[in-house]
Each structure stands twice: as C-alpha cells, then as structure tokens.
Design a protein that fits this description.
CATH superfamily: Phosphoenolpyruvate-binding domains
Helix content: 25-40%
Number of domains: 1
CATH class: Alpha Beta
Distance between the termini: 31 Å
Number of strands: 8
Length: 240
Amino acid sequence: MADQASLKERIVRGDTVIGVSAPLNATKSELEDIFSKDSYDFVNADAQHSPYNEERLVEFCETAKELGMPVQFRIKHTRQAYLVGNVLDLGPLGIEVPLVEDESEVDEALRWFYYPQVGGRSWGGAARYGVEGRGDRLEYADWWNANGILCMQIETLRAVTNIRHLAKPGVTCLTWGPADLNFDIEAHPHHPLQTVDDCVRHALEQLEGTDTKINFRNYTPDLRDHYAEMGVTVFMERPR
C-alpha cells in the first residue's frame, strides 16, 4: 500500500524530506523544470531577502499546488510573526520565521499559526492550502492544526544554546541559516561551539526526545550525506 502519510507526519517520524528553492516570479514551466531535477517534497520561497507581493504569493502557491508541491514560505522578519495567519491565508503549507532567539518569538508564531483551540489564527481565506473539500470550520481547523508546518530559523549562537526552549510543541522544524550563524561564530571566537557542524551536533543532542526536527540549508545535494550521518532528516537545496 502506498504511504498516505502527510508531509508533516513524514517529517515528524524522521523520514528524509528534501525541499528546493524557487523564485516567486518563476513561471509554471520554470517550476516544472526545477521540480523535475530530483524527488523533491516541498518548494521553499523567500520574502526575507527577496521582493514579493501578496497577489504573486497566491499565484505561486496555486501553481506549485497544481504541480503537486506544497510551499514553505519564509516571512520578512521575526517581528512579523503576528502576520503568520494572514500569510497562510494566501496558500503556503509551511511558514519559516527568520532569526528566532527567544521563546516569546516562538510563542507569537505559534499563536497565529494554529487555529483555536490550539492557537488564535483567524478563520478565512479562499486560497488556503488544503481548504478544498473542507469547508466546515472545525473540520479544516483540525486538519490544519495536524498538517501545517511551522519552522523557526536558527541563526545565532544564542539560539543554538537556547534551542531546547525554542523546540516547543507545535514547532515542526528548526531551520538553519549557515551564513548568518557563521557571522555570529566569527564574532565569538571563544565560544565552545566554533563551527556550524558543532552547532548542528549540539542541537541534535538537545532535540532528542522531541518531535522537532532540523531542516538544514545544505544548498547542494553533495552535502546531504554529511548532515544525514549527523542525524539531519530535512534538507533545503538550490535548483540543480
């Protein structure tokens, strides 16, 4: 029998899951070409370092959905976590919040990501992922709360050392930004964690016994095995 597990279920149980990045202005044929290069499980789109508007995000999510690919979307700034519910109404399945360091930032994202009685997300939005055939308010809310994917991005040593407190129930993945993390490592030459790999190993130890996984920006497929051997199971790569 074919595996009917959702993407979130696969992530939580520790399956290898691979995402690929794509620009928000990619056409359908360009996305088809990107997705054909490997067996990808989701597409990652970015607003933190790229321009976007809401109409384009809706179009991008609709096109990706037609091609069978859910969207993970990185919002512009940590302090915009209060807008997570509004962004989700435009079609992503997953949200990535950048530069997270504090529990309060996680709490803010959790509140607006999940519907009551888990969180406080407002009801509405015709473009929401998975809403087709689930028009009943409670049916969709329950489905979303079980299947939506919330990610916090770890980009500082402070976040790494605080990681057990950031991996709260409801946080599916802790994503990694190696470039910004390296900036912080360079600023703290006497810190016991002196490489990105040191930080990953420390985080994996701290996450034992939780459902939260590491989603690592390895960028190129040749680094998958290196991080998989450490225990990473979710990867984000550039198009080949």
